[in-house]
Amino acid sequence: MYRINKKFLKSSHYIIELKLCSIRLHDNSKFPWLILIPKRKNVTDISELNSKDQILLMKEIVLVSRLMKKLFKTSKLNIEKIGNIVPQLHIHIISRKKTDSSWPLSVWVVKGKKYSAKNLKDVLNKIRTAFK
Description:
Elements (H helix, E strand, L loop, with lengths): L5 H6 E6 L3 E6 L6 E6 L12 H22 L3 E5 L10 E6 L20 H15 L1
Antiparallel strand pairs: 1-2, 2-3, 3-5, 4-5
């Protein structure tokens, strides 16, 4: 059985389970930011998934990307697979706007800001509802 890395449990909030991925909201209110974590044990790279899971991952990335564009009214998404700090395979999907705090640079160049309790509840409800 796979386990979600402890760093994700500390820095993100559960949203929903898709067929392949667990979806979590990164706790940074400066950017709408979802993380897709494939539910596979000891996988650190897309190339380690079997071909069926690779295709499913791409479908789930597209599904979440469309949802993010619609919900957060953005024309630009950053979709990234890095894994330098947390090796467990995960994909970041970040909604960007030209007015955000680090445009056009990476979201990692600015200090994050945790969601307030009310804002977090509202954003989680908004995203969960969109997945239904």
